[in-house]
Amino acid sequence: MRSSPLSIAYIVRDPLPPRRADVLTLFGAELPRHGVHAELVGQAGRAGQAESDGASEGAAPPQAHGMHVVGSLGSRFAAVLSPFWDMLGLLRAWRRTRPGCIQVRDKIASALVAWIAARLLGLPFVYWMSFPIVEGFEVRRDALAARGRGALWLAHALRAQASRLLLYRLVLPRADHVFVQSEAMRAWLTGRGLAPARMTAVPMGVDTALFERAALVPSTDPRLDGRRVLVYLGSVAQSRRSGFLLDVVTLLRARLPEVLLVIAGDAPSPDEMAWMRREIASLRLDSHVLLTGWLPQREALGYALRAEVGLSPIPRGTLFDVSSPTKLVEYLALGLPSVANDIPDQALVIAESGAGLCVPMEAPAFAEAALRLLDDRALAADLAARGPPWVRAHRSYDILGRKVAQAYSAICPPCGPIP
Fold it and tell me: How would you list the strands of the sheet with 101-105, edge to edge?
């Protein structure tokens, strides 16, 4: 434990209460064990908003941190008002407990204001970068240009340009420390001039107690009976090329008529889910794809327990190459042999764990790898056995929590060392 506790004022981009595992579990459960407590600052979510990519869910333990919700992401003025709301929340956090540092996650304008506040208060400023948000703005800008949306394009073009200037010229160079999503993101930002010593990579992990296979109950859905089941845990979205999964199933169906893919996850909007259902119908895959929509965590994992193979295709490109997907680590924690494509973090996980097959994101390659695992039960069993011990040693949140706590100990030396 620390010689004295550390409180962090933590401004987050995601809706409050938190649902993402790297906020919910890491800051809500693990870091408090090391004397690190977070005062979360942010906005309430939109009604019915889907926020998680894997099977994680729930509300943070109320005793683990304070929460200061100011404003709502459902407001039409949220993008403009968010920095002001965050500063009000920061003031409330300051009144409740004097923080040892100020940290901002994936917000740019709020980060600049928070940096100024940290300097005035003589506190370290930390930025947590879980996503290349500037590049995300630029993708949105380019999509609007392709659709001929002139006025909207101009607004997004200005936002992207201003965000690039603020983040890469002002915020990141002046941050005392930067937490990043993966080693690939750390290398990418090093190429942009940030010192590697000022960055700590914190990939996505799992709460191994929640993913203990023996403590979970397999699904009793009769639609799975007599089928060779594959599973995909995660969001459905055109930006994630979710139609790729249907291409894989189309190839598998020709050689394995009893194949069934369970897609256990929701879409960010009803339109996206309607698009996926139309794609399934147009390819006549209704009897080979089970699209569940959102499910409680344990129910989704119950479907995964009935599967023989987990699939984790993540599109290559600037946005996702620096990501750290949760679903592959979740499959491994469950002892589910997996097929994943070669974005850097997934390639690293497969190489180190030996618990799956890594192939390019091409439908024939995915189909062949899945068939190999379905046909070779000895190979599948060997890979399944490798997953859980590797996750416990490298990607459990108790391991990641210790790593992050050690980083805070260096950022805020008076708080004492982590044993």
Answer: 65-72, 36-44, 6-11, 101-105, 125-129, 177-180, 199-201
Is the pLDDT score of 49 beyond 80? no
Query: For residues 311 and 66, what is the distance between their CA atoms, to the nearest angstrom?
Result: 37
Question: Could you give the count of Cα atoms lying within 13 Å of 241 in the half-sphere of its Cβ?
Answer: 15
- What's the rounded Cα separation, in Å, for the pair 338 and 233? 12
Cβ neighbours of 29 (radius 10 Å) = 18
- Find the angle CA(201)-CA(389)-CA(295) to the nearest 5 degrees: 75
Alpha carbons within 13 angstroms on the beta-carbon side of residue 238 total 12
Strand order of the β-sheet with 309-312 is 289-291, 259-264, 228-233, 309-312, 338-341, 356-359
213-393: CATH topology: Rossmann fold (3.40.50)
The letter for the amino acid at 234 is G
Query: Per CATH, is 6-205+396-415 categorized as 1.10.230.10?
Result: no
| 77-96: average pLDDT | 94
DSSP annotation of 230 reads E
What DSSP letter does each residue of 41-60 carry, written as one string? EEEEPPTT----SSS-----
State the average pLDDT over residues 269-295.
94
What pLDDT does residue 191 have? 96
Q: Which residue has the tokens 């879980």?
A: 130
Half-sphere exposure (CA, 13 Å, Cβ side) for 229? 25
Largest CA distance in the chain: 66
Task: Classify 2 as helix, strand or coil.
Answer: coil
Verify cis geometry, omega within 30 degrees of 0, for the bond prior to 17. Answer: yes
Do the beta carbons of residue 105 and residue 13 sit within 8 Å? yes
Every domain range in the chain assigned CATH 3.40.50.2000: 6-205+396-415, 213-393
pLDDT, tens only, 182-194: 999 999 999 999 9
Burial of 230 (0-12, 13-18, 19+ CB in 10 A): buried
Residue 50 has pLDDT above 70, yes or no: no
Q: Take residue 102 and report the two structure tokens written for it.
A: 């100020």
Question: Residue 79 carries which DSSP code?
Answer: H
